[in-house]
UniProtKB/TrEMBL annotation:
GO cellular component annotations of the record: Golgi membrane
Keyword Transmembrane: yes
Family annotation (InterPro entries): Carb_sulfotrans_8-10 (IPR018011), Sulfotransferase (IPR005331)
Enzyme superclass (EC): transferase
Biological processes annotated in GO: carbohydrate biosynthetic process
Record's subcellular location: Golgi apparatus membrane
Record's protein name: Carbohydrate sulfotransferase
Keyword Methyltransferase found: no
Its membrane topology: Single-pass type II membrane protein
Assigned protein family: Belongs to the sulfotransferase 2 family.
Gene Ontology MF terms in the entry: sulfotransferase activity
Chief site of localization: Golgi
Length: 433
């Protein structure tokens, strides 16, 4: 028996040698490829401009993608609070039907309905939903931020009965954010950071309201002035902008009663959880470096936007002033440490050598150094406190009233101690450069 087996093996080997060699070669290549991918996960490679490829080989901790029972418990608690707060409330908010429908997206194949709210990760979700429509599994960050509205399909084309049926038959989710943090984020992106479109849309009107000056550029609206103008638009129910108005106005949570409520404060964990709930866990594989990719995407978007609008910015603000504002915005957002000074001079800003790629590379290097040496999370919180210390208590109380539905329905503290007391006197204006 042993001899027959031996002969059989020799016979197979004789005729199948090429197949075995092929299998061995493929296996070796597979192992080599896996090792290369693992090595790539430990580095950041940022492609700047043509011919300019900067590789930053800093080790970054990978985001923990495991979803445990804690997230599910938190999700249930948020939904229970929504049901409790919406008891005997037919609806909240003042936005019209068209605004509501414009913020709702439906993905039929995945039985998913998403309500997007500006300044709460909506750009991320709108890019991801594009991939769901195409059945493509790749990083949402591979789509440029300014292309997030491509092929955007909202409820606007749906008749009343049709979209009510969609809401009944499919699972629904939204993401929310602490109203104070969201309001500051809107100011940083739309007013403080060079943004001529919003300087004209909001800034000039804010100046006309607070300073009684007309035909003004609107580029230097202070945070206090923006808050006062925002309160005015809410009280008058006029000239309201989606980046600032309450989340409950967009998504009608008491009418829709969402199945999942994600928070910006726990964005990564909540994204993973919701994807798995919709049987889309395979997308988590392209989000393994979530935080890193998000920061690099934000940096790229900020720099690209400045490059595109630079000529319009200089009608109101110098290039040097615009670049310094971007640097400070990234410090307030906790991307660059406050200890790292702006590395360019006024002369540099007019020098052709200070290209978009050079500026972007400087920001990335500053972020890497900041991440390794400083507590950026604590710095972000400190700047939030400093910003609201510039707002009088009477004005803060008006904000409470405007956002009261958001505070109650989504479980945020309307009067957090860290913003209300103790109030520091003669605090420095973090927006002055």
């Amino acid at each position: 028996m042993k001899r027959k087996s031996s002969l059989l093996i020799r016979k197979v080997l004789k005729h199948k040698t090429s197949l075995i060699v092929t299998i061995c070669v493929c296996y070796s290549l597979l192992m080599l490829t896996n090792n290369l991918y693992e090595a790539e996960d430990r580095r950041i490679e940022v492609k700047l401009a043509k011919g300019d490829n900067t590789e930053i080989s800093k080790n970054l901790s990978r985001q923990d993608t495991s979803q445990d029972n804690d997230t599910e418990t938190i999700m249930k608690s948020r939904k229970q609070n929504l049901v409790k707060q919406c008891y005997n409330r037919i609806n909240v908010g003042r936005s019209d039907e068209d605004n509501f429908k414009a913020h709702m997206q439906f993905v039929p194949d995945d039985k998913m309905v998403y309500c997007g709210i500006e300044k709460v990760g909506s750009t991320f979700w709108r890019r991801l939903i594009q991939l769901l429509y195409k059945h493509e599994i790749r990083s949402p960050y591979s789509i440029k931020p300014w292309d997030c509205m491509n092929n955007y399909k909202s409820f606007q084309s749906q008749k009343l009965d049709d979209y009510h049926d969609i809401l009944k038959e499919n699972s629904k989710f939204l993401f929310v954010r602490d109203p104070y943090s969201r309001l500051l984020s809107g100011y940083l992106d739309k007013i403080f950071s060079p943004n001529p479109y919003y300087w004209n849309l909001i800034g000039s009107k804010a100046v006309a309201f607070t300073r009684k000056q007309k035909n003004y550029c609107g580029h230097d609206v202070t945070f206090l002035e923006m808050v006062e103008y925002f309160i005015h638009t809410e009280e008058q129910n006029k000239d309201r902008d989606g980046h600032f108005l309450p989340a409950t106005d967009h998504c009608r949570p008491c009418l829709v009663q969402y199945d999942y409520i994600g928070n910006m404060e726990t964005f990564t964990d909540d994204v993973y959880f919701i994807l798995k709930e919709f049987n889309l866990g395979n997308y988590t594989s392209v989000l393994k470096d979530f935080k890193r990719d998000s920061i690099l995407d934000s940096i790229s978007d900020t720099v690209q936007t400045f490059r595109d609008v630079r000529s319009m910015v200089t009608r109101c603000l110098s290039s040097y002033g615009g670049l310094k504002r971007i640097w400070r915005k990234l410090q307030i957002r906790g991307i660059i440490a406050e200890q790292i000074q702006f590395p360019f001079t006024s002369k540099d800003s007019t020098n052709l050598k200070l290209t978009t790629a050079t500026f972007k590379n400087a920001i990335i290097n500053a972020h890497i150094e900041s991440k390794d040496r400083y507590n950026l999370k604590e710095q972000k919180r400190k700047y939030l406190i400093s910003a609201y210390n510039l707002i009088p208590i009477a004005t803060m109380n008006k904000l409470q009233k405007i956002f009261q539905n958001d505070f109650q329905i989504f479980g945020y503290d309307k009067r957090p101690d860290y913003l209300y007391q103790p109030r520091h006197k003669n605090i420095a204006d973090i927006f002055k450069l």
